[in-house]
Each structure stands twice: as structure tokens, then as C-alpha cells.
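Subject: Interface between my chains keeps coming out wrong

I've been trying for a while to get a sensible model of this assembly. When I model each chain on its own everything looks fine, but I need the whole thing in one frame so I can look at the contacts. Pasting all components below, labels as-is. Any help appreciated, I'm running out of ideas.
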Amino acid sequence: MKQLRVGLIGYGFMGRTHSNAFRKVNNFFDVPFQPVLQTICARNEDRAKAFAAKWGYASAETDWRKVVESPDIDLIDIASPNDTHAEIAIAAAKAGKMVMCEKPLGRNGAESEAIVDAVEKAGVANMVWYNYRRVPAVTLAKQLIDEGRLGRIFHYRAKFLQDWTISTELPQGGEGLWRLDVNVAGSGVTGDLLAHCIDTAMWLNGGIDEVSAMTETFIKERMHTLTGEVTPVGIDDASLFLARFNNGSLATFEATRYARGHKALYTLEINGENASIMWDLHDLHRLQYFDYRDEGKLRGWKSIHITDREHPYMANWWVPGLQIGYEHTFIHQVADFLTAVGGGNTPSPTFRDGLATDDVTDAVLQSAASRSWTKVKTR
Amino acid sequence: MKQLRVGLIGYGFMGRTHSNAFRKVNNFFDVPFQPVLQTICARNEDRAKAFAAKWGYASAETDWRKVVESPDIDLIDIASPNDTHAEIAIAAAKAGKMVMCEKPLGRNGAESEAIVDAVEKAGVANMVWYNYRRVPAVTLAKQLIDEGRLGRIFHYRAKFLQDWTISTELPQGGEGLWRLDVNVAGSGVTGDLLAHCIDTAMWLNGGIDEVSAMTETFIKERMHTLTGEVTPVGIDDASLFLARFNNGSLATFEATRYARGHKALYTLEINGENASIMWDLHDLHRLQYFDYRDEGKLRGWKSIHITDREHPYMANWWVPGLQIGYEHTFIHQVADFLTAVGGGNTPSPTFRDGLATDDVTDAVLQSAASRSWTKVKTR
Amino acid sequence: MKQLRVGLIGYGFMGRTHSNAFRKVNNFFDVPFQPVLQTICARNEDRAKAFAAKWGYASAETDWRKVVESPDIDLIDIASPNDTHAEIAIAAAKAGKMVMCEKPLGRNGAESEAIVDAVEKAGVANMVWYNYRRVPAVTLAKQLIDEGRLGRIFHYRAKFLQDWTISTELPQGGEGLWRLDVNVAGSGVTGDLLAHCIDTAMWLNGGIDEVSAMTETFIKERMHTLTGEVTPVGIDDASLFLARFNNGSLATFEATRYARGHKALYTLEINGENASIMWDLHDLHRLQYFDYRDEGKLRGWKSIHITDREHPYMANWWVPGLQIGYEHTFIHQVADFLTAVGGGNTPSPTFRDGLATDDVTDAVLQSAASRSWTKVKTR
Amino acid sequence: MKQLRVGLIGYGFMGRTHSNAFRKVNNFFDVPFQPVLQTICARNEDRAKAFAAKWGYASAETDWRKVVESPDIDLIDIASPNDTHAEIAIAAAKAGKMVMCEKPLGRNGAESEAIVDAVEKAGVANMVWYNYRRVPAVTLAKQLIDEGRLGRIFHYRAKFLQDWTISTELPQGGEGLWRLDVNVAGSGVTGDLLAHCIDTAMWLNGGIDEVSAMTETFIKERMHTLTGEVTPVGIDDASLFLARFNNGSLATFEATRYARGHKALYTLEINGENASIMWDLHDLHRLQYFDYRDEGKLRGWKSIHITDREHPYMANWWVPGLQIGYEHTFIHQVADFLTAVGGGNTPSPTFRDGLATDDVTDAVLQSAASRSWTKVKTR
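Reply #2:
Try treating it as a single job with all components included. I did that and got this:
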């Protein structure tokens, strides 16, 4: 089997999920490539080496430019903080490498547009890690919608609720906390959590036409780890918006890190004329489905335990009844990427799909700032 | 409309549910009788009078024999402790009254048999208050089974879990606690809770052939309210049994008052070749249904919110989505009783049905005592 | 006990829930009045008489003015369509009667203001039937919030989802369908469903400062029953809004009759610094509670089965584990009304509370029309 | 790090779960060994080679004796059908290898006893793969019980429900179906499914004293794949039993492959004086916990989402809210095995623990055959 040598930039939470995916994919999926964990790159040499040892990377590096330019690398995988995405991705594209990038693609649409231009000009394979499309339940939802089972869509609603930043003691920035630093992250929950909701929503229900949003920063000042000083918090702690999709359906979206009791509760629901679908990340192995065409007295919400061979991706795992978890979405994404690239197809979500999501988050932030309905940029 | 004058014996928990049923039935159901709350009978005169005032009974009485013999009474409704059922019911039958009786019918099969003989000889309408048959979700389960949707039945399981007698401080006997006094109650959870499970089970799945049971009294001695002395507890605190139904299906049954966290968790499940059904009393307005004939990738347990007009009894209540509660099962039972009697039909469960359940509880207690598989008496 | 003679205007769905409440309250609650079902009033004489017979009203009437002016009536209860509320309520107040009125109080703030002026000028007891405050689980939520258990509030979200008007075949207006006729109803789901969400929200979380809303009428034309002609639909089928409460918390609200699979799914959630609460109408006998102060490894959402004696109103019903239903909220409301009036206190929600909700729904409709953030009127 | 060279016998479902565990453990856990996938052994050479390629085994072998005797192997891992366990395990012990073995250990207590004797005589590390102990929720249950939170235990109930053999078309025996062949499997659901329930139960609640059981073979004859002939089915399709634990608590156990709608629904519940616990495999990342010592009005079942750092094993995975799945239980088991062995401790469950479970399943089968209460063998 053909090898595909991976250079991973970033060793945090996402560095782990990606490494695991590259390392496991061939055990479970028949794909035309064998990913090779070639190089891990991180600014801190000790950590890079420790990570390489833990995961079996052949080498560790501290300068991402060397990785991008190395002839030993086929694919650059970007799992470093958001403020590094554009520079690395553009350089990788110019070097002719395939590029995978964590979401959000850029810190805003302008950054993302530059990235998209670079990969499209270079003609290199690219994919943004909106992994929730590959939760089998969500993929099944997509199938059901594509099969026309829902009929005309009236409503979409999504939320992503967390509660990990409620404490005023939490600093902003620094190791593991760059998501609280607006300069690094670009925004708060809008780019971190809503971006996931928006990507899935547009995949399932098409483009978004306009939004009316509000954001809030509940804790106004936090100590910044790098300076030790208490400074204003620049990110949005919560972001809510109303939207109208191009297909005429109405939507509410909400993300927050101040919803006590919810750790990573990404929920989505879509209501059609004939059927409706619900899903949530805290029980990601289930899909709720209601079909009005069922016999009257037996209508109800069905909880489908997504562990059967008929379910997307599941024939590759265990036996019916035995659930998989979060990390598997990344494995599915790698499998689909490799299959597409091997077959000469375009793996999705592409960077251009990632840009489309950034256009919506830009509109959300702009609407919140201007307190007015805002059109999503069309390209 | 024809009036039907009720003489109620007993003013406790069940006295209230019955009174409420007689008082409300005409507001919601078109039935051929108007029940009239004629006489409430209780040993304590003050309580009888207070109850009469609260519920609108025309008179209060302390001697049940007078009620039974009164020409102003058409129906004797027995809601007094178990040790009084046989004497009152037999007298009522002899007096030519219709008779309704709380469950269990007698404290054992022998008592129940005498009662059945009396009503059948007198030819009077009779009904035992196994009210859970009239939970709309349970009635729907019966319909689905009768329609043959489940196919061959393999398994039945039921349990009734409570936790209200765990404290050693609780006395046995006395006001509101006669269920702990074996002389009054006849048995513990076997007659109180398992009897419900068994009545529903035989209604849904046919007769029971044989059982293997175990019982336990966890707290061996309690103060007896009437004597003030600490004496051995005679009732069973927990009762579990395996069973084989006449149709070849296998079953587990369990009842206890020592299952911390469960207040009145009556659950039942039936597994057929093609479909399965689950229900529980803590969410009595829902029925869980699984149909294997559904499309493969969409198979799952459907939670049917039993509040639609197509659902049993529900067209008589509110609008879809709005649930009813526990007390409504008694109203349904009265409605069905009045309709049957008015139409010259036999309302069920009859006393004979109640006897059949007592035959099973007798077998359960006998099996537990003898530590052996025990055949249920066939009549 | 003192009698309180009720004159009910309207015999529809709400006429039934109110009649049931007046008829049952004394069986379960010790209150200082005995409501008497004196007169039912409806435009159609036959229906009024049939209703009187079914519920035991002493008389039936077709002219509400006669009822309002009758010396035999102490309390006018308005359960007729929204366009009749103001005229009847004002007349009743002028006649010195106590007045209860279905929600929304008026078709808009202006109508409601006139009603409020009338009752306050007359000094008569008044109450608007926002019955969901009296779901025991919701009342418990109020207690928990009042006890300060949640800490600073960050988020509130509520929705009321139905699916009964999706068919294009459904006419607007006429018997049982006046909620689809904008002239009668005043608005669509905004006044019908969102009003419930808003009343509860302000009760639990205080006043609302401003909103950004969107509404939609999915089916633009329907046959009008009264004329037989297909005419434009004037009501909103769906209404969604973002809000900021006076306490700084953020909110999403949504109501629709186009959410396939939901019959009357009113859900609410409130997230505080220390604890969060969730509730939904499809399982109204449960409250979900999360407390961050629980021991770390044992934190979780607790499903509280609201059937214990410690729970609001529940000591008056059955025994732990046995649920009540929708209709009981009206009984609780009558009980509280009678207790307050008997004790010389003001029963809530008052008409002034009802006006406050109408001010919010006015702002919602105005925001949707103007596509801009709109301040809620302060009085 | 020290290498530990694994020789795996068997390449089926369990061969995959074990290989995955050995391959991933070092990526997530700091353990004193690095497992090396040295040799896979299977009777069919092509399949052995294909499996080796898929999982990265250094070599493939068809004769397990060669693997057992190979100096390149430190640990023999037995994942082949039940009828091979004893012979391989005993040989491995004699060869001085560490031995891990799939459950049940032997086809009956006699076989298991011989295996235990062999490993104890050889003094080699040994472990039986009762993987469900390492579901983090189940491990947490064990902690809570060990901390004494439940108080005196009254009840235990467990069931393992499947529905995959209902079709009469399914053959017995052959590739992937040896679990239906009594000669290979030893028994049906008793050894396959109940064994899991029993192992967990005894771990959580101590030894079982006696049982009363019933078994059933619903489909009496099936085509045997190896002979092509229709022959009697020797396995039990369903197995139910009542039990009394040594601590006096009462139990029901049930396993079946005829419970339509359940794919692998292993559920357990334990009720103590003060607290109760529930868990099920279909939502393995949750634990239900009820504590009576909670404040009265706030008592309820808490659904704990077992994804926090405080939860067993979870600090090694992702971030709060993100669930793991079935396969992780095997990784945890390998991690614990390696840690114990590295630290000179005994990893559990040992083969002796596996024997204890086989003693119970023997008693169950004997009780079902003799239709009598049967004592579990004590050793």
C-alpha cells in the first residue's frame, strides 16, 4: 500500500485526535494509503519529543517551515492555534503538500479566503476538520435528508453548550487556554463552537441568508498568563443568533461556555413537513427520528442506536449494540480523505466549505456589533 | 340519565381515587349512568363525616352492613383493608348489589373463590379494581398484542419497585399502615404489588403455568401500632419469581419495598418475534415500542406520547401533548364498568379474573415457602 | 363554607379545564370558598345547555352581559376567544365581579392596559390563567431560584413547539380554529404559545429589556371557514426571538406550530453560576436539576419525579410515584386564587402581570416587523 | 520501555478488540511495558496473514503450539473459541508464559479448575477478559460501593438482552457462529452473556450462595454449517435465575438472544439502604445514581455523564463531555494488566475469578436441569 507521510503541526488536544486517527485508520478501513507518522512539530522541543515518543512519530521538529518544506512529508496537518493556520496552510500549499487544517480555517473570512486561494491555486488536496459530520448518526441524518424524507424544511435549531470558563480564576491565554485569547483564537465561542454548528447546519440544510446575533462576555477581565496582568477579555463567552436559511427555514443558534451542567452539549434539530431529526453530542451514538407517515397511534420519536452494520461507518467497527465514541469521527474523516484522494475525488469539507462557515461567523459577529440583521457574504 | 347510587366502604387512599372517579366520569365520558355519591362508610364516624363533606356524599355510615342492606344503594364499592373484602362482598352479592372491590380480591385464593361463588350465584355485576389495565398506554399495548403485531412471544418481565418501608422506625399496622400487617393484608408485596403485575401480565400474555419464587422479610421485627409491642413482621418485603406462561414464554417478576430510588416503579416489557413493548408507571403517559419490520437503518425504540385522539380514552380528555395522570385510570374503569353494565355486558376484570391472580400469588407464596417449582392452580 | 358562584364565558377547551378546576378544588384542597358552577354562557344555546348538563352548571345563558350583571354571580371567568376578553373583563370589573381571564389577557398591550385599568379602578380580584406556573415542577423551579441556589443567571431558553397546523387543508377561523384567525386571536403563536413562555420566564428570571425577533407565516393562504373563501393568513406560524433580561442574562425564545413531532413541547432551561434547571411539558411531572456544588465525580443532571409530599401541591394528591397531569395546574390555580382572596391577598398572576407579558409580545411582533432590536415598554 | 511480545490465538471479534488494545495502550496510558504485536495464530493461514497485515503483527502462524513454545513470545492471549481455552492456557502456563484468556475461562468449572491449577502452579500472570469491569461507569460504581455509600444491599438485578438469533434461518456452528454450537461454546447465553453479568455482580456485591434457574431453547433444530444437516440445538437461548448473595441480598438475572429490540443491552442495578446505582451498556458512558441522603425535595436519579477527569480512566482520554466507547474497556484492561505485572501485583480478574463465575454458571445450568434451588460450589 502507498504510504502517505504526515507532518503534524501542533501537539495539543487536536494533535492527539489526529494522530490517533492516522494511526488507527488502516486497522479498520480499507483505504488506498497507509499514513505514516513522520514528523511532529511543536515550538517546545521537549514536548515535541515526548509526543513523538508517545505516538511513534519518526521525528520531532520545532520549526514548522522545515516540516512544510521537507521532501519526506506528503501531508501537512495543522492542529496548532488558530492564529497560525493561515501562514502554515499557505506555505504548505505553495510547497505542494496536501493540507488538512483544524477548524475554524482562519480567524475570519479574510484569512480563510487567502488560504482557499492558496490551495486552489496550488491544486492540492485539502480538508478542514469539521469532524462532527462524521459522527455516524449525523451522517445518517444527512442521508435521510438527501433521500427527501423530511419534505419542506421549516426549522433548524442548534446549540453548543459548555460550562468550563465560569470561574473568574481562569486565566486567559497560555498553555491549553489560547481559546480565551482573542488574538490567538480570533473569537470566542463563535469560532470555536458555533462554527461546528454552522458547518453541520449548512451541510444538512444549505446556505444561510442572514442573521441577527447577540454576544456577551460575562467575565470582563482575566489575568493573562503570558503577561501576568489582568486585562480585558476580548472573546465572546456566549453567542446567539437567529437565522434564515436560503430554503426559507428559520433557525436559532446558540453557543456558550456558561451553561452550567453541560460539558459539550452540541445539539441539533431539523423539522420538516414529514419528518424531524434530533441529535446530541452527549449521546452521539443515538439519532432521534420522528416520521409523521407512521401509523397514527404509533407515531413517536424513535431512538435509533447507531451501532448496526446498515449505519454509516459502523460495519467497520464492532457488533450491533456496541457504541463507538468521539475519537472515531476523526478516523472516519481520515478514511474518507484517503479514499477521496486515492480515487481522484475531492474530500469534503474542503477549505472552501470552511470559508463558507467563516463567512457566517463573520456575519454573526458583525450583526452582534451593529445590532442589526446582517446578510451573509455570498461568493 | 339513570342514576347509580354508590355506597363506598373505606375512606383511605383508594376511597379517594374511587370517589374522584365516580364524581368525574360524566364530565368526560358519555356513559348510561350517573353515579351518585350516596353513602360513605367508615368505622370512625368523624372521619366518615369529614370524608362525606369533602366529596359530597349524601350520608356517612359506620356499619357497612347497613349500607349493604340499604335500598338506597345500587353499587357497593369496597375500598377497605383486604381482610374485610370477603365478608362485605359476599353480603353485598347476597343483597343483590353490584359490587366493585379493590385488589387483591381476597387475602388468598380460598377467600376469593368464596367471593366469586357469591357474585356468580347472585348474578350481580362485579369488577375488581386492577386499574393499571386502564392506563391508556397499557390499553394500547393490549390492542397491539391483540392485533398480532408481536408474533410469537418469548419473554415477559415485570417489576414493581418501591422504597417506602426501608426505615426500621416504621411501625406495622394501624392507620395507613395496614399493608404491613399480615393478618389484615394477607401478604406483603406479593398481594399488594405483584398482584398488579400479574393481572396485567395475564391480560396481555395469557395464563401462567408454573412459578419458582423467593421472598424475603428484610426487617424482621417492627413495633405494632395497635399493641405498642415489637413483634415479628409477617409480610414479605420482597417477592421475586420466575414463571412460564401457557404460551411458552419465560418471565421474571419482582416486587419490593426496598429498592431505594423507586417510588412506584411498575415496569413491564414483552418481547415478541416481531415487536416488543415496554411501559413504566413513572412515565405512564408513554409507551415504548420497537418493531423489527421497520426499515433496517431506522429501527429503534419509539417513545409514543400517549396523548392523541387515536389513543385509548384520550379523545375524552384534552388535546395532543397534554398528559393525564394516575387518577384517570380509575375514571376509565368506572366508565367501562358503566358502559358494560348499561349494555348488558360483563365488565372486566371480573372477580373471577381477580381470583385467577390470587391463584398465582398463592402459588408464588407456596413456591417460596417450599423452595420448589409450583404449578398455578387451574380451575 | 362560603360559596363563590362562577359565571363562565366560553365552553371550549379552556371552558372545560376551568370547569373541572372549580368542580374538583374542594375535593383536594382546603380553601375558604366552595365554587359553585352557576352559569355557563355561550353564543350557541344548544351547546351552552349541553355543556351545563355535562358539568352541572345551574343555568345556561347566551348573552354574556346578563351573566356579568347577574346578582347570582360572584366571579366572571373568561374562557372565550381573545377578541372578547377586553369587553367582557371591563364590564365585569365595572359590575364589581371578581374576574379571571384566559391568556393572553388582550390581543395586545393596549387592550390589556384598558382591562388592567378597569379592574384596578374597580378594586376587584383578578387573575390571568397562565396555568403553567402551577405545574408542581415549575413551582419548585421558582422556589429553587428564590432560594438563591442558581447564583448569577447567565442564560434562559424556552420554546413551545407544536405541529398541528402543517396541513394546507386546515381552514382558518371557525369552530375550534379561531386561533388561526388574526382578527380573533390577535396574533398567532406569539400570543398563544410564546405568551406562556414569557410569563413563566419573567416569573422565574425577572423582566425582559429588549428583543430581536423574526416571525413567519409558512402557509400564506387558507380557506376561511366563515366565508368559505381562500384568504391571506394573518397570524404568525412561527415566532423566534433573542432577548436580554434586566438581570443581564441572555435568552432565546421560540414558538411554532410547524415542528413536526412535537405536540405541545414547552421546554424551559435556566443556567446559573451554580446550578441549572430544565423542564418540559411533555413530561411535566419531572424536573431536571444540576448542581455544580455536588461532589465532582457525582455531578450530573438529576431527574426529580415531582410526586413527593415535599413537592409543591403534591401533598394534596396521591402517594409518591403517582403522577398528576395537565388539568391539575388549573386546580392549583383556583386553589391559590381562593386562598389569596379569602386571606385578603392578591392572587397572581394578576392582570397587570398579564399586561407585562403582552408588552413583551408586542415588542416581539414590532421587532419582527421592523427587523430591529426593540425595547420592551416599561410602565 | 520494556517490550512485551504478544502471541494472539484467534482472529475473530475478540482478536480485533485485543489487538486494538495492545496497539493503543501506550498512546494513552503510562504503563511499564510496550506491547509488541508479535504473532497472530489462526487455523486458516490466509486469514492469519491478512489479519497480521491489517494489525501489524510481525508474523502469522497456524499452529498454536508453536506460538506457545516460541521464545519470542512473552504473553499468550487466547481469543479463540471456548473449546480451545483449556488446552492452550494450560500449555502456555507450562511454557511459563503470561496468559490472558477470553471469557468464559472454560466451558465449565472443571475445565476452568484445570486452567487455574496450571497457571497457579506455574506462577504466571493471568487475566480473564471480563472487560465490562473496565467501563469507567462500572468502575465508578465499584468505587461508590467500596466507599460504603449504598449501605446494606437489598437487591441486585442484571440482564443481558440480545435479539440476533431469532431467525430460524440462522445455522448453528461455523465461521462466526460457533457460539450456537454447544460443543464449542459449552453453553448458550449462560456462558456467553450471563457470565458477564455474574462476573460484574460478584465484583460489586460479593459471592452468590444459591440459584434457581430456568433455561429455554426456543428454536429446537438448526442446520449445522459443518455437516449441512439439521440437528438439535444444544445451547440455551435464554437463561433466567433467581439468586441469593452471601450478603443476603436478592437477585434476578436474565440473558437471552430473543428479546426483540435489544442488541447488547447489558443492564445492572443495585439497591442499597442509602443509595442505588443503575447502568446499561447501550449508554455505557452514563451512570445513574440515586442518593436518599440528598435533600428531600431534590432527590432523584442523577445521570452522570462519565467523561470527567475525576472519573476512572477518563483523564487519559479527551475532554469533559466527549464519550468513549466499547473498545476502550479492553485498552483499560491491558493498561491495568501491564501496570499490575510491572509493579509485581496480581491483575484482576484472575483466572481464579473466572473460575468463580464458571461455578455460578454451572449451578445455573444444573438448577435449570434439576428444577431445584442449587448451591454454588464453594472452593
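Reply #3:
Confirming on my end. Chain A has a mean pLDDT of 97.
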